[in-house]
């Protein structure tokens, strides 16, 4: 995993195909990731057809990676397969509840990240679409997901056709605590965010958007309270409809 | 990541120390993992003291790995640091809602899995404790977690002092779907679970527990409806108390 220190999110892909063999190997190897009771509470929907990508695109705000990537993977928290297994084996499943969603989502996300690590080590480029949990019902409909299956992650995948600059990270001391959590003083915040705020691109970003601080870009434009509250409701409704609440 | 195909969960650790330098490097490298808006919505609490481990142990059903490991990491979904940054920068954060918990938990879990992959590649052994979401309030209290911080994963970490057998996995075809989700027929279930059910250790497991099927071990003993429902409530209460609901 020497690739970890130079990894970038890749949004533009070359025409080179991602072979079925390679994809299958990566999907298989990623499954070595630990899961709850070794139940593997996830499933992956592979979308290669343009028709399928076009059905998914609106749920991801029509970001061009969705139709532009040779492969789109939608990773789902899945208690349907396990529950079906139980019912077929004289066992009564009790997984239609919130904790079971959390358990299955955890399995699905850990699986997803091992897949990402493996794919990037192979030289593939990918973009993780956080939009998956914004309007999950659209994805549920597009992929025909039954009860107890919830989409939690989407990966667009292909061979890189760009090499963006390496993005910044907060200093490790900003997110690591020893023994107990030590809450942040204004001085801590200044220290931890100084480098990020000083970045030329972030200063330009503030200028273009007419904002005094970088933080305002997040609170006023990118991730607003209003949007978050509306999408929280949509997520809750989808969880209910899928039988997890 | 050649280690992926031979990885095992490690619950017994040698006396060899995990150095601060190595731990810090792994915690830093794992942070190359993509996060929402590059906000890194997570934090890690490192527990090395016996006192700290003993405070955490009950939340993990006193499994011996917690006090037996040289290092315990509790990884948290964290919107506190980002919200504090916002408030200190004339920006009004709107992250006290369910979607924001999902976003931060996602960041935290992806970070966790890259950490696991890096640590295992280094030769370290680890055990992922799913118990973290069972009684989160106990962990919140033990680690003094403020509002908008929720524990989502725990890793016990050390140099391996055992080499357990490789555990089984379901066939890849059981969890990969093409274009849309194809629900499982009884024949599919038989096909996908045949190898798991035929394993000598699983047959013995049924015998010891006086169960007719392996699935009943899960529904009747390991992950019961009653426990799941009680823990769903505890999780919801903790989310409310931490300000995410």
Automatic annotation (TrEMBL), chains A, B:
Keyword Zinc: no
Domain Nitroreductase: 4-159
Key words, A-Z: Flavoprotein, FMN, NADP, Oxidoreductase
Gene3D superfamilies: NADH Oxidase
SUPFAM superfamilies linked: FMN-dependent nitroreductase-like
Protein name per Swiss-Prot or TrEMBL: NADPH-dependent oxidoreductase
InterPro entries, per the entry: Flavin_OxRdtase_Frp, Nitroreductase, Nitroreductase-like
Sequence similarity: Belongs to the flavin oxidoreductase frp family.
